[in-house]
Design goal:
Layout (H helix, E strand, L loop, with lengths): L6 H11 L1 H11 L1 H6 L2 E5 L4 E6 L13 H19 L6 E12 L6 E6 L2 H14 L3 E10 L5 E13 L2 H17 L6
Antiparallel strand pairs: 1-2, 2-4, 3-6, 4-5, 5-6
Helix pairs in contact: 4-5
Length: about 190
């Protein structure tokens, strides 16, 4: 279970759950997600849900949602949690370093991707801040259609690394300790 929300996390959650503010953010920072019509329908410290609808801009030639549009929704479901958990502490760099997908059914209509890995993401971010080292975590986003059938499962591997003065000091301290304690480093 992730730690309680900080005031910065609460403010971030209020901002992104406001439909107009989220659309403006997507238009400015993620224009393809805005064009595809992604919607954030739920965000808690434990889970997030994002929807994508079959429409002209998300279609493929087979009359279903294009796989890349599905991947975008799945990535946002885990990424918005990552953004939530990086609020309020020191700055943390985040980056997608891996993606795996399984498709089980034709994606038509409204697809909802849910990622329940908030606790693991929070732990990776906290550990990176505490040690100054990079951490990775896999967020699993499961897409379901209106009937509740699984359409696709995406496993998005995120890398987190604390940045800034604190992270550099922690890294330098570890290097200095190693240099002093290493008997093979005698002069």
């Amino acid at each position: 279970m992730p730690p309680p929300e900080t005031p910065a996390q609460q403010a971030f959650r209020r901002q992104v759950l406001h439909p107009l503010k989220l659309r403006l953010y997507l238009l400015r920072r993620l224009p393809l997600a805005w064009l595809a019509g992604l919607r954030l329908v739920a965000l808690t410290p434990e889970a997030a849900s994002v929807t994508i609808r079959y429409k002209y801009l998300t279609q493929n030639p087979f009359r279903s949602i294009y796989f890349a549009a599905l991947a975008m929704a799945a990535e946002l479901a885990s990424g918005i949690q990552a953004m939530l958990h990086t609020q309020g502490g020191g700055p943390v760099a985040m980056l997608v370093v891996g993606l795996q997908a399984e498709f089980t059914k034709k994606a038509v209509g409204l697809i909802t991707f849910t990622c329940p890995d908030g606790a693991a993401i929070a732990a990776a971010v906290a550990d990176s801040r505490a040690t100054g080292e990079g951490r990775t975590v896999v967020g699993t986003s499961t897409g379901r259609d209106a009937a509740g059938d699984v359409v696709a499962v995406f496993r998005v591997t995120w890398s987190f690394k604390a940045k800034g003065v604190v992270a550099m000091l922690l890294s330098a301290a570890k290097v200095s300790v190693f240099a002093v304690e290493n008997p093979f480093n005698a002069k």
